[in-house]
């Protein structure tokens, strides 16, 4: 499947891995894919990487508070000394793997022979409300259905 990814899509997935590593997360999830997409050259309008990172930090802080940990006592943001890329293999969550598979399905549905950032974005718009990526989008006022419609309209105009 990865042989069909465009250069920008490859870079978005690589950026997702790097985001997870910087945050010292144990796995690569949809929230990391969202950050990777937002930082890519093909990012849809409205996906601001700095804002999305801030929201992920905020969600992490809320999760700590929920279990009784004061996030002010910890650095819940990206690690200041991330391990160099390639030094630590991080697995993708099942949900993130499914999102990448769904990106392929999105490309096929549009009769595209490649998988681009736009297809990963479309796959991210189909996630359940409980997914961290969906919650991050919602916290920035981005409605997945609206993002999806806008992206599909743009893709159909280009095709």
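Sequence proposed for the structure above (159 residues):
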């Amino acid at each position: 499947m990865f042989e069909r990814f465009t250069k920008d899509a490859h870079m978005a997935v690589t950026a997702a891995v790097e985001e997870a590593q910087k945050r010292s997360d144990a796995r690569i999830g949809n929230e990391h894919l969202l950050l990777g997409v937002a930082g890519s050259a093909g990012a849809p309008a409205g996906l601001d990487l700095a804002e999305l990172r801030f929201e992920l930090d905020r969600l992490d802080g809320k999760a700590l508070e929920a279990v009784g940990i004061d996030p002010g006592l910890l650095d819940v943001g990206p690690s200041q000394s991330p391990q160099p890329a390639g030094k630590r293999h991080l697995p993708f969550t099942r949900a993130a793997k499914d999102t990448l598979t769904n990106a392929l399905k999105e490309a096929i549905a549009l009769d595209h022979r490649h998988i681009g950032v736009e297809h990963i974005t479309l796959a991210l718009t189909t996630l359940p409300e409980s997914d961290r990526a969906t919650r991050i989008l919602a916290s920035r006022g981005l409605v997945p259905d609206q993002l999806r419609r806008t992206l599909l309209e743009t893709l159909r105009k280009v095709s």
